[in-house]
Amino acid sequence: MKIALAQLNYHVGNFESNTNKIIDHIIKAKNHGADLVVFAELCVCGYPSRDFLEFDEFIGLCDDAAKKIAEVCIDIACIVGLPTPNHKTEGKDLSNSAYFIENGKVKAVVNKALLPNYDVFDEYRYFEPSTEFSCIEFKGKRIALTICEDLWNTIENPLYVTRPMDTLIHQDPHVMINIAASPFAYNHDEERIEILSDNASRYKLPLLYVNHVGAQTELIFDGGSLVFDNTGKLIDEMPYFEESLAYYTLNEDNTLSFDHPTTIKTQRPGDIEQIYQGIILGIRDYFYKSGFKQAILGLSGGIDSAVVCALAAEALGPQNVMAVLLPSRFSTDHSLKDAQDLVDNLGCKHEIVPIKSITEAFETALNPQFDGLPFNIAEENIQSRSRAVLLMAMCNKFGYILLNTSNKSEAAVGYGTLYGDMCGGISVIGDVYKTQVFELARYINRDKEIIPVNSIIKPPSAELRPDQKDTDSLPEYDVLDKILAEYIENRCSSAEIIRMGYDEATVKRVIKLTNSAEHKRYQTPPILRVSPKAFGMGRRMPIVGKYLS
């Protein structure tokens, strides 16, 4: 039996595009002699559809799409994922389902049993977990079909009380197939391989796994579909961050073989390389799927905006990126030169709009209220908000989307101005710590200098007052980022972090700043998720909570 794995980029709610893409690949697979073509979890509607799933019309459109797919599925079978109504009175109204379609008809329906509701996942909000498990008979073989999380309960601390494969294995399947919507994080590829390999070896069955690729707002899907033999050995690994269609043969002895050269990575890509690829895909899909083509950002000459500008130019093409230099009376000449050198290196468009007279006008207007009071954060933030007003005006006039350039370290401790440098349509590096931003800059410069070296080596500064440095307000970033990672990613308490050897006063101050800034993060744009724990939908904290503050 020849099986095709279709690793594709879907668009939430775009039924016409998703259906046509699925049909095109059914035809391709059929012309290539495939007996079965496998698509990803909830591919018909895209993932995650969130509260679109609460609309009956949306579920009806999923069913209409499945019927169109079935019409072309002749002399070949396919597996597609979609939400379906739960016809039982008890429980949620929907199931997260997979259709097995053969010769124009749905021959079997498999419903997901293990519904994640941690981190970015919220499936139990919509779906009823399945309690019934049956193999699919096809061409003399029995297929144990599961959906994503259904194979993830083999971990040391199981999240669920059942394992679907423990039931399916008693039906003597010949092969496991798992369809998934598994989001990207820079450490997730190795975790995936370990979990899926454990399943193949545990049940002594070959395993084919197909994942989404592409981005849906903040969630990035990296593809990397996988194939294992019945010992748990990885025998093929599909490309990351791109669409792909690959073919495998399930032989009479239930071994898997394939004709194409294996693409198994002999060396796993590093975190920064993966972050780079993920962000490029995230920017590209955010614009394409939103119907926009051109980005704008404020370019300061600092490392954050330089990295964002370079990433945007790579993702969208430099001709579609407008970098605006917005010097204030505190901007240094070398910062302006660094910004100018960057746009020259990239070839993107740019404008220079000084804000000195604008901020002075605001300060003059506020003279009656501010008279006799010292210059402080109020005047600093007027500069940042003046820049945001100008950038948003250009968005309105020319149809740009504003890229937010705040990094994760700044977002964590609130080192940014609401309605100023924290505004934007999408946050590009809001899940990248400052120390990682430096690494990302060096990666961007791996072949030639794109980001000026001075932007990388000079002390970071917001340049909102004379001789300002980030370290005037914050610990050194190499210390700050380690504390933040322990608190945010590893969920360690202040006491635990202090026991690791960090200065007690610094730890308590950092955690207090982080908790106090929750109201700011609540109002920021969606952040492209590249880490195991990003700000946004995957980290839900009370704004006025006092714990650890």
UniProtKB/TrEMBL annotation:
GO terms for cellular component: cytoplasm. GO terms for biological process: NAD+ biosynthetic process. ATP binds at G298, L299, S300, G301, G302, I303, D304, S305, T405. Keywords: ATP-binding, Ligase, NAD, Nucleotide-binding. InterPro entries: C-N_Hydrolase, C-N_Hydrolase_sf, Gln-dep_NAD_synthase, NAD/GMP_synthase, NAD_synthase, Nitrilase/CN_hydratase_CS, Rossmann-like_a/b/a_fold. Its EC number is 6.3.5.1. It is an enzyme of class 6 (ligase). Residues 1-252 form the CN hydrolase domain. GO terms for molecular function: ATP binding; glutaminase activity; NAD+ synthase (glutamine-hydrolyzing) activity; NAD+ synthase activity; nitrilase activity. Gene3D superfamilies: Carbon-nitrogen hydrolase, HUPs. Deamido-NAD(+) binds at N381, E410, K520. Pathway: Cofactor biosynthesis; NAD(+) biosynthesis; NAD(+) from deamido-NAD(+) (L-Gln route): step 1/1. It comes from the Bacteria. The active site is at E41 (proton acceptor), E41 (proton acceptor), K112 (for glutaminase activity), C148 (nucleophile). It catalyses: deamido-NAD(+) + L-glutamine + ATP + H2O = L-glutamate + AMP + diphosphate + NAD(+) + H(+). L-glutamine binds at Y118, S182. Catalyzes the ATP-dependent amidation of deamido-NAD to form NAD. Uses L-glutamine as a nitrogen source. In the C-terminal section; belongs to the NAD synthetase family. This is Glutamine-dependent NAD(+) synthetase. It comes from Mucilaginibacter rubeus.
